[in-house]
Specification:
single chain; 102 residues; mainly alpha; two-stranded antiparallel ribbon; 3 helices; 2 strands
Length: 102
């Protein structure tokens, strides 16, 4: 009889990507799009498209604290929560909604 060892070979962080062993940063409360500064909103939109070399340290630290981005081997990347916030905001704007995202 062959037994499968649970979790063998799997490593995931809070945003579901494999290979990262860092604990997810969870915000204390849900954050809405309107709770972010214009710079934070711009950073999230750009990170949603890929690496953003223009991300300043202060903005990165705040977004990390909110759980909207994560440290990765290649640098700062958008987290699942950050991606969901950006996408919901973009869809709401397309549908004529408030664009609050949360």
């Amino acid at each position: 009889m062959v037994r499968r060892r649970s979790g063998t070979g799997r490593a995931a962080d809070g945003d579901g990507t494999e290979g990262s062993r860092q604990a997810p940063a969870a915000p204390a409360t849900a954050i809405g799009w309107s709770d972010l500064s214009a710079d934070e909103q711009t950073a999230l939109k750009r990170l949603n498209r890929g690496p953003y070399q223009g991300l300043d340290a202060a903005t990165a630290e705040r977004l990390l604290a909110l759980g909207l981005v994560a440290r990765r081997p290649a640098g700062i990347g958008i987290s699942r929560a950050g991606r969901e916030l950006v996408i919901s905001t973009l869809l709401a704007a397309r549908e004529g909604g408030s664009g609050d995202g949360g």
